[in-house]
């Protein structure tokens, strides 16, 4: 299961055994989209200030490098703030 999560979060580009590449790319996109929308709701000006390319890179880095594992949406925003504090220090 770890290979699945590593792929979906962008920690690995190695396709997990038994999974279809197209489906896994879709899972990865859906994780990114959900994270992006959640964070944009809490930081509406940040995406506009950064521009699309930098925004995508920031969200991808957060999804890949963060330690979030909570099913609660509000916890994502808290973890993102902690991620920003760690990466900008």
Automatic annotation (TrEMBL):
The keyword Signal does not apply. Keywords: DNA-binding. The keyword Transmembrane helix does not apply. It comes from the Bacteria. GO terms for molecular function: DNA binding. Transmembrane segments: none annotated. Gene3D superfamilies: DUF2063. InterPro entries: DUF2063, DUF2063_N_sf. Residues 2-84 form the Putative DNA-binding domain. This is DNA-binding domain-containing protein. It comes from Ideonella aquatica.
């Amino acid at each position: 299961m770890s290979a699945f999560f590593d792929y979906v979060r962008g920690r690995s580009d190695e396709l997990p055994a038994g999974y279809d590449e197209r489906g896994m790319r879709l899972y990865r996109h859906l994780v990114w989209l959900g994270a992006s929308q959640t964070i944009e709701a809490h930081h509406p000006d940040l995406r506009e200030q950064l521009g699309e390319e930098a925004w995508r890179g920031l969200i991808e880095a957060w999804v890949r490098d963060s330690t979030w594992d909570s099913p609660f949406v509000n916890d994502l925003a808290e973890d993102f703030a902690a991620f920003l504090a760690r990466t900008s220090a």
